[in-house]
Amino acid sequence: MGLPEVEAGVAPATGGAESFEAFYVREYPAVVRLAYALSGSRLVAEDIAQDAFLRAFHDWQRIRRPSAWVRKVAVRRAGRTVQRRLLEARALARLVAGRGPAVAELPEPDAEVWRAVRALPRRQAQVIALRYVTTPRWPRSPGRSAWPRGRSRPSSTGAARPWRPASPPPGGGRP
User: Fold this and answer.
1) Domain parsing of the chain, residue ranges
2) Concatenated DSSP letters of 49-115
3) What's the angle, vertex CA 75, arms to CA 71 and CA 76, rounded to 5?
4) How confident is the model at residue 4 (pLDDT cuts 50, 70, 90)?
5) Separation between Cα atoms, residue 67 and residue 24, nearest integer Å
6) What is the C-alpha radius of gyration for the chain, rounded to an integer number of angstroms?
7) Fewest CB atoms within 10 A around its CB: which of 63, 98, 105, 110?
8) CB 91 within 8 A of CB 101
9) So what's the pLDDT on residue 33?
């Protein structure tokens, strides 16, 4: 039984190049073994291999070294899969230990804003998240500036002003 794409009439590569079906039959077991070695799960390995070959099929005419290309895709996908499984295991360990999630749920008005941010194009959403989530918020105390020592404070007019000491230097001369 052949691949559905081949049976549906998709033409194999021409000019003596190997067909995708022959490539798939030859390479699939090796890619599954590679993904299994990296992921530790046979079922996950088969999913990773299928995904890698599906991507290869879509780009088949542009791939120069298909064996290396498919392995590279499988290795990257296996790495992401392992990382995701580790994160899930840590979250499960936190829940079992009785600790809550690392981040509290957002209040509904904030959640609505972040849903709108996630609807933006990917790079715009990343910039907004980096700007507002990672920007430090310094505590303000009465009578003190909101800016910590050593930080330059922005001018309200936008123009830079030269620094001058609060009192004249000893001797009354200019600094």
Assistant:
1) 4-96, 104-131
2) HHHHHHHHHHTTTT-SSHHHHHHHHHHHHHHHHHHHHHHHHHHHHHHHTT---SSPPPPHHHHHHHH
3) 120
4) very low
5) 10
6) 29
7) 98
8) yes
9) 93
